[in-house]
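Practice problem: predict the structure.
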Amino acid sequence: MTIFNLKKIAALGCLLVVAGLAHAENTRTYEVTITNITKGQTFTPQLLATHDRHVEFFALGHPASAGVESMAESGSTAALEEEFMAHWYQVSEVQTIPGLLGPGEHVTTTIQASARHRSLSLAAMLIPTNDTFVGLVGVSLPWRGSRTYVALAYDAGTELNDQNCNNIPGPTCMGVGPSPDGPNPGDEGYVYVSNGFHDLPDVAGAVILGPLNYDWRNPVAKLVVTRVH
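Answer:
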């Protein structure tokens, strides 16, 4: 190996070290506290993602993606995480906070973002519901200090809102989460701001949940986002 090549390798090594230091300097750390502000709804494990402003995991008036459908009907964030990471060049971090978050409870985590990825998104199913989720799409991360956001409940439009425990997962109902693939009777077919629970007629052999204990008024969550590094 020639001295020239050794010098090139040494120079390349220096460049990589400098690039690594620059990346470290451009990485920002945020503390995120999520509070469930409903009376009777629980959040399934909560997905958080930091990304650039072009990433939107759902759009009002448009059909839900497969990942949003799975999250909104079953509470699983696995498919939605994959959808975010398919845009890895636009995403800094995706994480799911494990465990349920009950009414009045809060949870705190930390998440990182690069200087180019200045947006934050949140998603979690509301249980017991058929296909309702709490969501934030691309709110701005604070340059310094803290910002507070409130999040609405959205209906994925992928399952009939029959409020029937047989079709609702989670500890209250222990029903089946995902509905059959493809359009189903009663699907709205697009994401919209959820209009909550209603008084529905009883169905033989089924537990039909009512609004007295499980309805809500938007917003359903509060987020406090603080830059810590």
